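Justification of computing resources. Each target in the renewal requires a structure prediction run like the one illustrated here; the chain below, 85 residues long, is used simply to show the kind of job we budget for.
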Amino acid sequence: MSYTVFVTLDVRPDHLDDFIDGITENARASLRDEPGCLIFDVHRDNTIPTRFHLYEVYTDEDAFTIAHTTGNRGEVPRNVCLRRI
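Resulting structure tokens:
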């Protein structure tokens, strides 16, 4: 059974460009480098331009856990997000 993650983030307005660049690269890298990552979509809210929705699908929960606890993959999203939300 697949494992789905849905995250909503409110980004600080003064960091929008950096966040968009960082999360776009993170999504590409997840699809490229994480064997269990099937989908990583980034959506910008239509009514609140500083709100983003991340939709990720992994083959299973183990694939998600491995992707977020090995190498620097767990650190990259934290660095992209925490400094900007």
